[in-house]
Specification:
Chain lengths: 218, 218
Amino acid sequence: MTCIITAFAQSPDRGRGLARDMRVRWALEEVGQPYDVRLVTFRELKERAHLALHPFGQIPTYEEGNVALFETGAILMRIAECHAGLLPEEPGARARAIAWMFAALNTLEPPIVEREMASLLERDKPWYAERLPLLDDRVRLRLGELSVRLGDAEWLDGPFSAGDLLMVTVLRRLEGLEILEAYPNLVTYIDRAKARPAYKRAFDAQLAVFTGKVSTEG
Amino acid sequence: MTCIITAFAQSPDRGRGLARDMRVRWALEEVGQPYDVRLVTFRELKERAHLALHPFGQIPTYEEGNVALFETGAILMRIAECHAGLLPEEPGARARAIAWMFAALNTLEPPIVEREMASLLERDKPWYAERLPLLDDRVRLRLGELSVRLGDAEWLDGPFSAGDLLMVTVLRRLEGLEILEAYPNLVTYIDRAKARPAYKRAFDAQLAVFTGKVSTEG
């Protein structure tokens, strides 16, 4: 059964693949599942029909038969439960890959988003310049720990998993910034992930929404 | 097999049960599983032995036979996989409860922690007073959406689940603050959860570490 996901009708990152639908598109490509996309405007995000699907008025959502989900992490868990390719089968290895999913979303992403929000929303405030080093330090703390743990391994724990997928999409928020480039093994980790055919297909699909070369549901 | 979790040797919240070991203790009490606790000092958190268990030098960790995990969300997933009582069996309902787990950790907790960190680390900065309303607005946005979705239901989606457990422990970070008390249904939701016998046992166990009335592993 083809699932339906939602994505921004107007991509705020201009097709850079940083919106969270990219994470779900990539996961579906990794497991070889087709999907339809319903594009949602910013106004529609806060309307009753979308809030019934997503109580916090965000994208992506995921609909598959009678199952309707929100939260990217939960959508990836669902895809991984139904299809091989995102989580190991051995229960211990599976639990560790899930730990990396949560680490990406709950340990790495919050300080990265906080720094990003400050640069978007507080850049013209008198305190911006003085606060930025504090925010950078919080991000660096986590990048440093992640870099040490990754070492020269290819992926975070054995074969590529949904933990790597989420971690790479979180780290990509810092792409091109000096703060990330201080950790060469993290940069090559991101590049390694972006070389995956499934990543490329997902990236091209979300880019096509921005360039207008897209055919979507119905 | 009795699992071993880690907790702070010196509880920074003075036994209020806001450290993340409370989440794992509560989950283990809900499923009726015994556990041992290893207390870790702040110095030990950053030492090699602990970093091998937890790459980001935090608590809690979870060891059960050959499985060693970090990240509270992943630990709860593991406990829920092995024991009934934290996630529904029906796959769709299970996926929705997992969505609430991620929503608690990835949508509600980040703005709440950001506000908390500002009040802890930036209270003496010249910008603190002007920034606080911005931070409050970000928290209120999510509390408002959550309050609407909860309505007058007992729990977020059917019976009590690990999603409620995580959401309540996240909301408790705001306990006693006006910002939370503006949402009476969230306050009674928290109270309802705190009335659960498993919550009480877990709370008393973490409090005993602070008051010194504790027997821990070996």
